[in-house]
Amino acid sequence: MANSDEALENYLKKLMEIQYGTRDEQHFTEEDLKNIALDAGLTESAWQESQQRAKQHLQRGTAYLNAQNYDDAANELESAASLMPHDAEANYLAAKAFLFRGNRYNRSSDFDRSEYYINRTLNITPAHTGVMQLKTELNNKRRVLSNETERKSRTNQLTKWGIIIGVAIVLIAGYFNIYNGMVGLEEDVNSAWAQVENQYQRRADLIPNLVETVQGAANYERETLREVVEARAAATSVQIGVDDLEDAGKLAEYAQAQENLGSSLSRLIAVAEDYPDLRATENFRDLQSQLEGTENRISTERRRFNEAVQSYNAKARRFPNNLLGFDTKEYFEADPQSAEPPKVSF
């Protein structure tokens, strides 16, 4: 015969098979359990001792349950129900302890254990009033728990989508903020270029009056006048749109045409030194003064344009602005000598 500890271990193992195996739907009497214990090698006195131990677990578990110490109550009453699977009260109280502990911690595993002991109690005593009430309470709790789980799931989904939408809004707002900033800088460049063109056009508009004024001077050099007229025609024929500000070649062509016109004007006014009567003409002096002022304004607007391009390019090259597809602009470079307005000493 196996020793007492081995026999008790074999008995508990058989009880586990009864509780969790294919035989757990059967109702075992105390006599059935005693026979199982004897078959496992327990003596009758050892069997009685195990039952006494089970009753002690039951007594302590009941006390813990009444004191609302559901953790210890569940442990003690589960031990009692394991040693006395035939005892309806032990199984009922174990179901109760797990249900109350599940309510306290909102833990589904405790509800599963409670349901297990409820079913065992009903298998022993189908009309057990207390366990029927527990079953109703458990079902209600599970419905509430299911609703809470579903609500939390919906809340989590809403929270997740809220975060996604919030991040998307921030990114979109950031994109439009950066995009609009680049558009504003580009408009500054375009506006500055328009002012450059305005001043060049103003100079071109002064030339017909200047030519008409000097044509009346006797023996005035016709070749110089012809050069001015041709340079003006060439300069006004070169047109630069805002899309061309990214084309260094077109800007260079435009700058060269304007420089040629400026050089022709300088030669024209320089030749006027040889014609005192022309220099004495009020209309000529007025036109010459306007030309000097226009050249100064051209220099100023060209500088402002290049400053606008510098600000724009610095932003366009910087991350994440460089992902938006804004191409850098070209600076308007001119011959330093062309920045000097033509002067005549009277």
From TrEMBL:
Keywords: Membrane, TPR repeat, Transmembrane, Transmembrane helix. The keyword Nucleotide-binding does not apply. The chain crosses the membrane at residues 161-179. It is a single-pass membrane protein. TPR repeats lie at residues 54-87, 95-128. Its main location: membrane. SMART domains: TPR (SM00028). InterPro entries: LemA-like_dom_sf (IPR023353), MamQ_LemA (IPR007156), TPR-like_helical_dom_sf (IPR011990), TPR_rpt (IPR019734). It comes from the Bacteria. The keyword Transmembrane helix applies. It is found in: Membrane. GO terms for cellular component: membrane. PANTHER family: MEMBRANE PROTEIN, PROTEIN LEMA. Belongs to the LemA family. This is LemA family protein. It comes from Roseihalotalea indica.
